Amino acid sequence: MAHDASTRGYSESAQALIGQYESVAFEAVHRPVLHLFPLAPANVLDIGAGTGRDAAALARRGHAVTAVEPTPELAAWGRANHPRSIRWIDDMLPRLATVGALAERFDLVLLTAVWMHLDAAQQREAMRTIASLAAPGGRISMTLRHGPVPEGRRMFDVTADEVSSLAAEFGLRALHRTETPDMLGRQDVRWTFLVLEASPAAEGRP
């Protein structure tokens, strides 16, 4: 998989990131939106899965989980340390060509600390991709980062209103939003949890 500027810095920082990601529990990270996640076994897509922390937690809850991670060091750690039932795929937004080739729809799509790496044009293409992968009535849970860009990284700040407006163009409605402080204690960083929902009627989506 050819990687682009959106993943810049992740391979070089992989060891530090592994410790960082795994230091916070899935339940703590997603507490503001857990009540919107499916309870019954569902088909879940974790885009930018990192070490597989969230994918592992969802797999343990009985879901069928596909973890998408383009940074080989993070994916390798996840494969070695988390449930073998997770399906790992080397792919990335905005196209997710390999995932699209599966011809599957997903009841829950996670984008945790992912959207900020996409520029405006990529966000539009990515939203089209996500809408095409969401099952009827499926939900997309994403976090939007607000704060200074770390050295060596590529990030763009975007508001929940902007993302919700773009999502509406592709048949996704904003279901929930919550503002939270940074889970790692960084005073200059905050997050917005945004949950989108696909129409129950799959047909007619752009």
Describe the fold and architecture.
By secondary structure, the protein is α/β, with parallel strands linked by helices. About 30% of the residues lie in helices and about 25% in strands. The chain has 7 helices and 7 strands. It has helices at about 15-20, 25-30, 55-60, 70-80, 95-100, 120-135, 160-170, and strands at about 45, 65-70, 85-90, 105-110, 135-145, 170-180, 190-200. The chain has a 7-stranded mixed sheet, with helices on both faces. α3 (about 55-60) links the parallel β1 (about 45) and β2. The chain is globular and about 45 Å long. Mean pLDDT is about 90; it is low at about 5-10 and about 200-205.
Secondary structure elements and their pairing?
Blueprint: H1 14-22, H2 26-29, E1 43-47, H3 53-60, E2 64-68, H4 72-81, E3 87-89, H5 97-100, E4 106-111, H6 120-133, E5 134-146, H7 160-168, E6 172-181, E7 190-198
Parallel strand pairs: 1-2, 1-4, 2-3, 4-5
Antiparallel strand pairs: 5-7, 6-7
Radius of gyration: 16 Å
Percent of residues in β-strands: 15-25%
Element order: H for helix, E for strand:
HHEHEHEHEHEHEE
Structural class, by secondary structure, is: alpha/beta
* Straight-line N-to-C gap: 27 Å
Shape type:
globular
Low-confidence stretches: 5-9, 202-206
Helix content: 25-40%
